[in-house]
Amino acid sequence: MSDIIQLLPDHVANQIAAGEVVQRPASVVKELLENAIDAGATCIKLLLKDAGKTLIQVIDDGKGMSSTDARMCFERHATSKIQKAEDLFNLCTKGFRGEALASIAAIAHVELKTKQENEELGTCIKIEGSKIISQDFISTGKGTSLAVKNLFYNIPARRNFLKSDTVETRHIIDEFQRVALAHPNIAFLLHHNNNEVYHLKNNNLRQRIVAIFGTKMNEKLVPIDEQTDILTIEGFVAKPEFAKRKRGEQFFFVNNRFIKSSYLNHAVVNAFDGLLENGSHPSYFLYLTVPANTIDINIHPTKTEIKFDNEKALYAMLRATVKHSLGQYNVAPVLDFNRDSNLDTPYHFNAKSVATKAPKITVDPNFNPFKEATQKEIHFPFKRQKQNENWESLYTSVAVNTEEKQEELFDNQQEIKTQKTFQIQRKYLLSSIKSGVVLINQSLAHQRVLYEDFLESITVKEANSQQLLFPVKIAFSSTEIEMIYTIKSELENAGFSFDEFTKDSVTIKGIPVSVTESKITIILEELLNDMNLEVPDASFSHFDIMAKSFAKTLSIKTGTQLSEKEQEGLVNDLFSCKAPSISPFGKPTFKTLTLNEIDNLFNS
Ligand code: ADP
Ligand code: MG
Predict the structure, then answer these.
(1) Which residues form the DNA mismatch repair protein S5 domain (predicted)?
(2) pLDDT tens digits, residue range 246-290?
(3) CA-60 nearest atom, ligand 1
(4) Residue 98 in contact with ligand 1 by CB distance below 6 A
(5) Is 0.70 surpassed by the pTM of this model?
């Protein structure tokens, strides 16, 4: 039999490699920004069109390339950053694999312009799908401009797989922020469709964080600063009272490289022990510096995961350092250095002064929304006219006679003045129905009720708005402001009314009737979070996300005690819904147990 194995042509090999390196426009952004940094740039511009799908261009003032290098850089495994295998264990550049440009050039239209400082003329190279189209001398400034157009033009499957512009832009902004946070001493510009999104001057770290996340961030930051033989930790954690309900602003950098590490995250969260409300996540910006030869960056193609030689020691130090700083800033209730002895390290705080002032702990006084809320504030929003309709479905689902009226559903409710509903563990409502019992999850049920109400008010465009006595000004980062602005009209339909948009704040003068003033910030923050999450397809509608987000944020939670009246209100509202049996997120809202089923429990 003849031989059948052959080497793949370069352009095919490059396309395959691109599958690993380039998942979406944001991957290209990351690689190009990193190349600019490695080239020693002091100012880096990122220009985007259509979420990077049409154009991603990075312009730097770095050292540029000779015309031979300009051609070489598109070859696979072509790099100036390492020469021998040992170099892998002592990396101080972002790149080293030498495959980013080769991969990108295989799947896009690429135009490179570059010039070194001492050269008269620069080089311009155009490549399409790994094929060099042209190479010319040009006159251009020092540095490099790399434009990547029509990403995935030759891989329709990949191109179709890209998400909406909102989602892809979010991914790009995430990468941009990570790089910008890792290098506060470099100026960065980001333009999207000719609008300026970021203009970051060269700064110190605190200024950089504030420039990205908005002025309100400044007061939240507690500085971290610790040095030992094996590790330096610098940066900031946000005070616990500013913890977020979603993971968001959590950044680890190791030797100036953004990394993901659930292990180190655990160490930080652990240091907040007891200071965080259940389920909230602290924000942090932590910069670890370790000797380059004690980490392995090579374990992940996009280099966001790394391996540490002495993970346990890092964990213990990180935890202790964060804990210590929180204590110094008077935000930790107890300073406790009890460490797991397995994690013990030659590390002491003995030299440090311990906070002597009585610790301040802020407790959220609004924990039980019903304590201070009036009936209007607890959101059972609409007078439900169609109340009885959906009880029928309950009948059907438990297979009893649908002719019966609602009153007969509950046992003897009029005659003996017993309760119709019972609350169990502040979580479920139990109600007796003719055929047996129904068990309702109060939080999920309320989500369903709110969801349908919001959807109705948003889409029917009949805003139920209440004017605020005093307009509320809320600070947001510039990206957040941009997002709010793009969904302004939908928010107005939902009952919000806006006064003024500035670069980092928005003034609100009216809110939906179902929202209380104290919840405005959280409801908007949650909404932005939810909008940032992956959205599966193009049929995606802001309305639906918005209604779901509001419903989730405003629904009564497990742990909330409900009065008899509130319980009944909720049950009635639920069964007036169009789809009472599932929550907006697809979970069952109630379960029934028929008499038969109950009998069977006792007959086995
Ligand atoms: P790597 O960054 O892993 O070396 P790349 O494919 O990203 O691989 O880049 C290949 C080479 O091209 C780099 O090693 C560098 O020498 C050169 N290069 C890429 N981008 C720039 C730039 N913006 N300025 C100067 N040189 C660059
Ligand atoms: Mg690179």
Answers:
(1) 209-327
(2) 777 999 999 999 998 888 999 999 898 778 877 788 999 999 999
(3) 23
(4) yes
(5) no
